[in-house]
Amino acid sequence: MPERSVELGEPVLGEEELDRIQEVFETGWVLNGPVVAEFEQEFGEYLGAEHAVGVTNCTAGMDLAVKALGLTGSTVIAPGQSFIANGIAMLQNDVDPLFVDVDEETYNIDPAAVEAHAEEADGVFVLHYAGHAADMEPILEIAAEYDLAVIEDAAHSLGSMYKDQPVGTFGDATVFSFGPVKMLTTAMGGMVTTPHEDVAERIETLRSYGMDSDSWTRDDEQYSWRYSVPSLGHNFRLTDVAAAMGLAQLDRLDTFIEHRRARAAEYTERLDSIDGVHPPVERADYVHPYLYYVVRIGEEYPLSRNEIAVRLEEAGVEVSVHWDPALHEHEVIRQQIGDVTLPVSERLADELLTLPMHPKLTTEDVEYIASIIESHS
């Protein structure tokens, strides 16, 4: 038996969430109602975002952002080091993905690669990998020069800061995830933030089948059931139960981030001196909330990434990889775009390893994990 068991990620749920959910039960309104509106308001205020729209999950939010920004059938630049949800949002909206490589240090999209292909594109997807923000200043300058819409995948980066500005307040649409092991959880859910009122209104319509009004906001006193459907949408509505969980989690978000950053500092102190083990960076003028703590296992380390991953799991430590293969190498993507070579993204798919990180992770857990990695160095 392993000496101890360490989960990769684990949510913190308790009386606060139950109390909020109980309040929803008492109202009798459980879908896309007043508690969702309250969560949207408080989430937007937390970030300083002008508009926030709740959705069923981050993938749905990406789909709606593509539609709301008029990118259906267009060409969009995207990083090779990314999650399949980005590919789904593009291919299901007839978007032609133009994959580019990523920065070797932060694993985020390379602004130089964006600029090199800007004339060919209508938009750009930006992923903030593991919580470290992408270099937004040059990306936004390029987008302004070439009239590119900017969609940000912020599934990893709630609480991330770039030059004193929160992720969620930069691009034309930013999409957050509230899955089970995200920075805050609603079990499953997401949020889209945008500075554009028309984009927010479009997403609100599209998330509810394309209806021009929600049940609880209709004001036709004589015929309350009436609505029109000006465009085809989806049933991507957030529940009030999920929103209630989100409100309780939002109250503790800063504490969650503080805990993660403390454990990340302990990891880095232990791992930084091991040849071939490269801890994540936190560049100046950035704040990394460490949704994931991702190390790169280089050639100098005696074991491959896969080999040390197996050793850790045998010792009771749950690990993962974000992501292997790289996005452009998935079969469903290659069927659409053919063969594309992105050396950095492909090498990272073989070398990155995600170690446990969550609000319940202890200093002793970190020491145990580090000692296993160190023992094979």
What do you see in this structure?
By secondary structure, the chain is of the alpha/beta class. The chain folds into 2 domains: 15-251, Aspartate Aminotransferase, domain 2, CATH 3.40.640.10; 254-375, Aspartate Aminotransferase, domain 1 (Alpha-Beta Complex). The chain is built from 13 helices and 13 strands. The strands form 3 sheets. The protein has a 7-stranded mixed sheet with strand order 1-9-8-5-4-2-3, with helices on both faces. Helix 3 runs parallel beside helix 4 and helix 3 packs across helix 7 (197-206). The two termini are 23 Å apart. 49% of the residues are buried.
Concise description?
The chain is built from 13 helices and 13 strands. By secondary structure, the protein is α/β, with parallel strands linked by helices.
Largest sheet: 7 strands, mixed
- Portion in strands: 5-15%
Oligomer: single chain
Global mean pLDDT: 95
Number of domains: 2
CATH-scheme architecture of the largest domain = 3-Layer(aba) Sandwich
Helicity range of the residues? 25-40%
CATH class of the largest domain equals: Alpha Beta
Give the terminus-to-terminus CA distance: 23 Å
CATH homologous superfamily caption of the largest domain: Type I PLP-dependent aspartate aminotransferase-like (Major domain)
Radius of gyration: 21 Å
